[in-house]
Amino acid sequence: MELILLIKKEKNNIVLASEEEKVYGSICLIPKSIDIIIEETHLTPLKVCEILLNLELKDMIEQVSHNYYVRKMCDNGD
User: Which segments constitute the DprA winged helix domain (predicted)?
Assistant: First the structure.
């Protein structure tokens, strides 16, 4: 039980770089294409792909279909 709480606490304390914040801020609960994310953030396609992968690895977003991303819902339960 303590380990689960520790993992949840660590997820809540993730620090993002400014470009990661920009990409994460453009993603919501409605699927958004990578092309729209690139357009909204004014970052290069390569940089957006890199950041999307990092955000997926941090368990903050998920790819719901080919090149469409959404934020992951916070799990506030036990």
Answer: 16-64
Rounded Cα gap, residues 23 and 16, in angstroms:
10
The span from the CA of 70 to the CA of 61, in Å, is 6
Two structure tokens written together for 21? 């914040």
Q: H helices within the chain, ranges in order?
A: 2-12, 18-26, 34-41, 45-57
pLDDT digits (tens, 9 = 90+) for 25-76: 999 999 999 999 999 999 999 999 999 999 999 999 999 999 999 999 866 5
CB 28 within 8 A of CB 61: no
How distant is the alpha carbon of residue 40 from its chain centre? Answer: 15
